[in-house]
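REQUEST ID: PR-0412
SUBMITTED BY: lab tech R.K.
PRIORITY: routine
TASK: structure prediction, single protein chain
INPUT:
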Amino acid sequence: MNRILTIVAREYLERVRSKSFAIGTVLGPALMSLLLVVPLLTADRGGDDARTVAVIDQTGIVRPALAEVLAENGSKGLTIEPLAVGVGGLDEAVESLKSRINDGSAHSGLVIPADFVQSGRASFYNNSVGAIVLRDERLKPALDRILREERFRRSQVADSLMAFLTGRVELGSIAVTAKGGEEEQDEAVTFGMAMVLIMIIYMMVLMYGAHTLTAVIEEKGSRMVEVLLASVSPGDLMLGKVIGIGLAGLTQFAIWAIAFFTLSQRGVAIGEFSLDVGFLTPVILVSFVMFFLLGFFLYATLYAGIGAMCNSVQDSQQFQFPLMMGLIIPMLLMQAVMRAPNSTLATVLSLVPLFSPVLMFMRVCMETPPLWQIALSWALMGVAIWLSARAAGKLFRLGILMYGQAPTWATLIRALRS
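STATUS: complete
OUTPUT:
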């Protein structure tokens, strides 16, 4: 045990004293802010507004109304420019519209036919796939409103009735507590906080799992491992490395947690996104620690076994990709699980040990599943860790002193079978 603790202390101190640890501790939250907070701040400030839309309006009433509605909706930077129909007729005007789009003087164009109010049809011209966002998020809702109001006007619907019929719902969100109480809920903050914690698990498990692999490869390449194996068994060496690197990861997270709690107590907000520790219920906190630890040990043991078989980081690339997919695939499945967190598909996917750190924890944050499902995911991850530790231990014992030829999948399978 003393030898394992010595290895743990060595691995831990080697990482927390390094410059990369200090830089990562500072830049980690900054990177997550770029990935999460910046999109929230820029969601309503997209480049779609700074565009010119040339409009051929054969009704004579839609174009000025369109400019007013867009300005009212906050699209003041979106210029609606009229394009008249000359003596050459509509065909010549459309050709002029196309030329303006191609030479860049207009981003896109609209052709409003004379029977627009009756048919509800119009044509949108563009030469960029990105213009679809402008069409669907800006122009179409505005044209829908203009069409509706003009039909009301022609049907001589009273202004008071029209305002009544076109009213919008203001839907407040109230969360029901476990004791049956009520409290106001800010979904944006809840979702943002959940994504921050999920990204921390994703990045920390991936980063420190890879650290385990590189640490093994570096010691193997420097032949330091031969000296270590003279006084400690390969299994104890692997265990000490995994625990030491894991403690370094927990230390980094503890620093982030303290900083986050301090900022939240001071009421720090970024735009409309505020730091709120009220989101961190006991279930979420315990689940976060458990999924971080279990996820790290699962991936770190596999990375350690692969590192023992490889002579360089380049040799390990072919083996790292399948492990990385264990974290990348659940990130791709997040939206499907988020839409129906208690569906059969979401439940089954979140119980897969390689996916559980991301998907099950996301379910805990969004709509806490039954506790037996959370406990089952921990148990399954524990079994997966035991199996991966046995496989990694065999690879570690056989591969730690192997030098020379680069390993292949065939040699890895033969090592596991031996």
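NOTES: The chain is about 70% helix and 5% strand.
REVIEWED BY: pending
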